[in-house]
């Protein structure tokens, strides 16, 4: 049961992270209100990093900023390992 809760959480936070990232890219192009960098990093830290990183690379958003391209891969590895361990042992 707990496995499914973890997977649902990961899915929801990933979808939210992708939506916010795409919104920020669109806002940047239109010179409109932007999402705070701290918010994007927080979303990555709490589980959205793997898909957020993939999205950023795909849409070429903030890929030249070390502030994102260093922690997001680290967060991604941590979350992927945690998910694999959770699925295997819970």
Keywords:
single chain; 90 residues; 4 helices; 0% strand; elongated
Rg value? 14 Å
**Most strands sheet:** none
N/C terminus separation: 9 Å
The pLDDT mean sits at 96
What is the total tally of β strands?
Answer: 0
What is the helix content?
over 70%
Helix/sheet category: mainly alpha
Using the alpha-carbon principal axes, give the shape.
elongated
Domains counted in the coordinates: how many?
A: 1
Which runs of at least 5 residues are low in confidence (pLDDT < 50)?
Answer: none
Percent strand: under 5%
- What is the string of SSEs from the N terminus onward? HHHH
Oligomer: single chain
Number of helices: 4
Describe the structure.
With 90 residues, the protein is mostly helical. It has four helices and no strands. The chain has one domain. The radius of gyration is 14 Å and the shape is elongated. The relative contact order is 0.17.
